[in-house]
User: Which sequence fits this backbone?
């Protein structure tokens, strides 16, 4: 099996311009395929001679202000890779938008298993892989939050002061820009978030989209991380923002998006308990962070749906994302009342 595919129509790269840019930097026969997963930034496999790289760029067409900043992501990885071994090494940055229409960068390619909807063939005979993968996911997050941001150059990638307020108001602004109809549950969630802000806590790195399909596991050991991907929104601030969003993706059988398809995965309580054990953090206000996570996730999907709604993308995968937005908004309200 392969994790790449031919490039989707409408998402082709200007291969000749790319070849010209790479000349003298990475020489060799150039071949391009696409990683078809994901709904946001576009990722491609570049084979240059005997070497392989991952190219990341913003999606085609207009995008939300300050979103999909590949230059910033490259700079973050430059600082992060030496101190967090699961962050891929950034290799080459192109800030010249005349090459592909937008800035882009190349990073090392790591090989492993990304878990999505089905049991991968590598783990078919590993009966306890769900639990081992659960442990690897939580432990990777705990290790990220243990990185010394002040003993490195990482403290300056964000502003911890007022972090939660900026999170709430920033995502509220994005929601208002992208919505095409009123969703009452989103307004209920926003009122709750504004009225129940937790007290500030010591800042750590915050990935801001830490979830199962943004990590890569060893093909030989589902309990070992190979990489953590998608560092676009990484900043410094309250670490429980990551925990809350991760829990929004960690769906149980009776929740809107169903289970993982088999037993053995951590329950939500087990997820929280292992995280608290590994970090020593107080997680008593975790429900607030789950509501924030659900609100953010709904906004991200709404932004993608908005691009489809106004004709900026024709990708049919996005046509019904508005339904998911409403379901996630309902999930946020449910966590308010849990």
Assistant:
């Amino acid at each position: 099996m392969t994790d790449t595919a031919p490039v989707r129509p409408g998402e082709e790269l200007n291969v000749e311009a790319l070849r010209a840019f790479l000349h003298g930097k990475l020489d060799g026969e150039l071949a391009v395929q696409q990683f078809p997963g994901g709904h946001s930034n576009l990722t491609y496999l570049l084979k240059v001679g005997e070497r392989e790289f991952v190219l990341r760029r913003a999606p085609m067409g207009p995008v939300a202000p300050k979103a999909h900043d590949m230059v910033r992501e490259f700079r973050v990885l430059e600082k992060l890779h030496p101190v967090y071994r699961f962050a891929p090494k950034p290799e080459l940055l192109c800030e010249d938008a005349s090459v592909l229409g937008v800035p882009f960068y190349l990073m090392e390619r790591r090989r492993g298993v990304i878990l999505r909807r089905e049991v991968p063939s590598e783990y078919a005979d590993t009966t306890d892989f769900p639990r081992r993968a659960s442990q690897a996911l939580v432990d990777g997050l705990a290790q990220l939050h243990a990185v010394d941001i002040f003993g490195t150059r990482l403290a300056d990638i964000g502003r911890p002061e007022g972090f939660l307020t900026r999170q709430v108001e920033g995502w509220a602004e994005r929601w208002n820009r992208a919505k095409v109809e009123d969703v009452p549950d989103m307004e209920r969630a926003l009122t709750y978030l504004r009225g129940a802000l937790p007290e500030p806590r010591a800042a750590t790195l915050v990935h801001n989209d830490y979830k199962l399909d943004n990590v890569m596991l060893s093909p030989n050991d589902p309990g070992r991380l190979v990489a953590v991907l998608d560092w676009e929104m990484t900043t410094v601030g309250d670490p429980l923002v990551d925990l809350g969003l991760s829990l929004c993706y960690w769906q149980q059988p009776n929740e809107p998006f169903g289970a993982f398809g088999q037993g053995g995965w951590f329950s939500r309580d087990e997820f929280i308990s292992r995280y608290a054990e590994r970090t020593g953090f107080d997680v008593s206000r975790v429900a607030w962070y789950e509501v924030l996570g659900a609100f953010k996730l709904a906004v991200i999907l709404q932004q993608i749906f908005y691009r489809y709604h106004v004709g900026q993308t024709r990708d049919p995968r996005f046509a019904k994302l508005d339904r998911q937005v409403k379901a996630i908004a309902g999930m946020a309200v449910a966590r308010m009342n849990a």
